[in-house]
Structure formats: structure tokens, C-alpha cells
Specification:
The chain has ten helices and five strands. It has about 260 residues and is of the alpha/beta class. It starts with a helix and ends in an 11-residue tail after the last helix.
């Protein structure tokens, strides 16, 4: 299932869809199926236009980010926090033996802030190597070096190193959390990723407190033309499409109880 999901996403992301539509359109034209070729070419142009030159992706991400608002103040006490992986560039980190963060870095920046503020809190990191090759060091392993470099005691850390997907994050963490006696932990992940994550934790009957970070939108963007940043628009759209597909897939397969989990 993991490999199938990876291969599906390679083909299903917006720019890939546009590419395949162009190729199929050319093939159709060569085979004298000009009308089919024209339809496919127009579909590719529409996908590219929406992806590159509108705020559609940002609007779609915004809806996810608004689902679980972050509390205005820190809690009075924190006994534990769960940090979902996805914040390290695992390929670069592994090949260079370094600690290289990606766009999801806020997950660990926030965990570090809370670790300093609540010195007795345990830190549970869930994340293995999510690549197809399986050749890289996962987030849970890298995070030990990350936290150690900022003076966080290793005894406070618990790592779940085998998960490759959000579903596996939750499934593989359940017994480890119970064995460590950790309950009602803060759940730290990207705001757009929080609905799917909360749906999985609820289905697994693990009580957590959502603590969203890594916002990718300003929160008040409307649907409009945006000709100034096509590469960023493409990234926003790709992230949004992937997350919405994940929500739908998990709901249809019974892994979550709601299509769009909320508070």
C-alpha cells in the first residue's frame, strides 16, 4: 500500500497530470484523434493555469489550517508532546551527516521552545524514512541529534523510527505511548496536516491536544489571479491536493471517522 500510494502521488500531483495530458494529447493528434488531442491539451492548459497563476492552492490549504485554531496562550503545564516527522530533509541530512531542516521546520522549533519552557515534559517523535528507497535516516533518529545540540537531555526523548506515513505514525506510536505512560500529549504538526492527524488519533482512541504550527497561508486569502509567484503557487497547490487526497483516502478506507475532522 505504501509503494502504491507513493506511485499514485507521482502521477496525481497537478504538474504531473498536466504533463501526462500533454503527452496523451500529442499521441492522440498523431493518431488523427484531433478532437481528443485538443481536449487533453486544453485540460493541461487549465491545470497549469490554476496551479501556477491563481491562489487556488493557498485557499485550499487555508481551509485546512483554519480547522484547528492554535490556542492563544501556552498551557499551564505540559507533561508530553508528540512531534510528527516531516521537518528534516532526510536525503541531505543522511548524505552529509548534518541536520538540515525543510519547510516543516516549525514542528521542531516549537517542540524545542516547549521543551525549554516545560523541562519535565517528555518528547515523543514519530517518523521513519518515508522515501521509496528506504535509504535515509528518519526524523525520529535525526531529532535526537537536533535536540542534543540544544542541550535537551536524551532521557526525555522517545523515538518511533519505523513509520513512513501519517497512518503508520499513529499505529506504530500507540503501544509506545501506552508503555511510557504518556496521555493527553500536545500533538505538534503542520496546521494543514492537523485535521488528518487528529482524525487518525481519534480513530485509534489516543487522546491528544492539537498544537498546530508551520502555517503556509496568511489566513485571509481569497480566490484570485496571482501572476507574481508561479513556483510558490505550484507548491501550495501540490501540498493542498496531496492533503485533501489523503483526507479522502483515509475516510473511504475507514482509517478516519470524518472526511474533514474538526474540533
Amino acid at each position: 500500500m505504501f509503494i502504491l500510494s507513493k506511485l499514485f502521488w507521482i502521477a496525481a500531483q497537478p504538474l504531473s497530470l498536466a504533463f501526462f495530458a500533454i503527452i496523451l494529447g500529442l499521441v492522440a493528434s498523431v493518431l488523427n484523434r484531433r478532437r481528443t488531442g485538443l481536449v487533453l491539451s486544453l485540460a493541461a492548459a487549465l491545470i497549469l493555469f490554476v496551479t501556477l497563476f491563481t491562489s487556488a492552492g493557498t485557499v485550499a490549504l487555508q481551509a485546512l489550517e483554519a480547522r484547528f485554531p492554535k490556542p492563544e496562550a501556552d498551557p499551564a503545564a505540559v507533561s508530553c508532546m508528540i512531534v510528527l516527522g516531516g521537518a528534516f530533509d532526510t536525503e541531505v541530512t543522511t548524505s552529509r551527516r548534518s541536520i538540515d531542516l525543510n519547510q516543516g521546520a516549525d514542528r521542531f522549533v516549537e517542540a524545542l521552545r516547549l521543551a525549554w519552557k516545560y523541562p519535565d515534559a517528555r518528547i515523543f517523535v514519530s517518523g521513519g524514512d518515508g522515501s521509496l528507497s528506504g535509504a535515509y535516516e528518519g526524523d525520529a533518529a535525526v531529532s535526537r541529534r537536533f535536540f542534543a545540540s540544544f542541550g535537551i537531555e536524551e532521557g526525555r526523548l522517545i523515538g518511533e523510527t519505523s513509520s513512513r506515513t501519517t497512518f503508520e505514525n499513529v499505529a506504530n506510536s500507540r503501544q509506545l505511548l501506552a508503555a511510557a505512560g504518556l496521555h493527553r500529549c500536545l500533538l505538534i504538526t503542520s496546521a494543514f496536516h492537523m485535521p488528518r492527524s487528529m482524525g487518525l488519533f481519534r480513530k485509534a482512541e489516543i487522546e491528544v491536544i492539537p498544537w498546530p504550527v508551520d502555517y503556509r497561508t496568511g489566513g485571509e486569502v481569497g480566490l484570485r489571479l496571482d501572476l507574481t509567484q508561479p513556483s510558490i503557487n505550484a507548491q501550495q497547490t501540490s501540498t493542498a491536493v496531496r492533503e485533501w487526497i489523503g483526507l479522502l483516502a483515509y475516510y473511504l478506507t475507514g482509517r478516519t471517522s470524518a472526511l474533514l475532522p474538526g474540533p
